[in-house]
Design a protein that fits this description.
alpha+beta; 4 helices; Pseudouridine synthase; eleven-stranded mixed sheet; 11 strands; 233 residues
């Protein structure tokens, strides 16, 4: 597999005729935004699949998104049919994140469930207006604690914009490095949120696939040595 045009900030973990799965680096913009439509993983993957042929019309299709500041596993489709299948079956996709948050949680595990709405400043917040908000559910388990921080394993049950960050901030335990929804002082190197694994059904061969991206060493610097718990099969 040629890696000549592989984009910066996106390590390809798997590729076949239908899919590209990779590990997005923190700080890399996944898809076009109002302020940047060209310097994205999506655009760079289009270049990658064209293998330098300027006349090629090959492209990849967006299946889901990760915040620019979040690292980890991300899936792109190589055909419209694969994209449609993955989106239609997204409820069966299992997404595990790890987050380092401020403080120690009173409840060591739980599920946060409420409705989220985005305001005119592109800031997401909780709302009691179910007609305007979208249902968001996040399950978490405390994996390790220190005097200042807690490491959480997060099972993303729905996929709303900024969902994990908003839910954990609502609990009073914002993600470390989140200056949008959490604490900006003291400054931290990056947002301590990582998409560690994604499990899904392949759109054409029907096999259940799981891809993982190692949790960044930055998390260990915050929380100390730890071993991710084994996943139930």
């Amino acid at each position: 597999m040629s890696r000549k045009h592989q984009p910066k900030g996106f390590e390809i973990l798997y590729e076949d005729r239908d899919l590209i799965v990779g590990n997005k680096a923190a700080g890399s913009l996944a898809v076009a935004a109002l302020w940047n439509k060209e310097d994205t993983v999506h655009a760079a993957l289009n270049t990658y699949v064209r293998k330098g042929n300027a006349r090629s019309k090959k492209c990849v299709f967006v299946v889901h998104r990760l915040d620019q500041a979040t690292s980890g596993v991300m899936i792109f489709a190589k055909t419209g049919q694969a994209q449609a299948f993955l989106k239609d079956n997204w409820a069966t996709t299992k997404k595990i994140y790890y987050a380092v948050v401020h403080g120690r949680l009173a409840q060591k595990s739980g599920t946060i469930s409420n409705h989220l709405i985005e305001d005119e400043d592109y800031c997401v917040r909780s709302t009691t207006d179910r007609a305007k908000g979208k249902l968001a559910r996040t399950a978490y388990t405390v994996v390790k604690e220190t005097g200042k921080f807690s490491l959480l394993k997060v099972d993303l049950l729905t996929g709303r914009k900024n969902q994990i960050r908003v839910h954990l901030a609502d609990l009073g335990h914002p993600v470390v490095g989140d200056d949008k929804y959490g604490k900006s002082d003291p400054p931290h190197k990056r947002l301590a949120l990582h998409s560690q694994s994604v499990s899904f059904t392949h759109p054409f061969n029907g096999k259940r696939l799981t891809f993982t991206a190692p949790v960044p060493e930055y998390f260990t610097r915050l929380i100390g040595p730890w071993t991710p718990p084994a996943e139930k099969q």
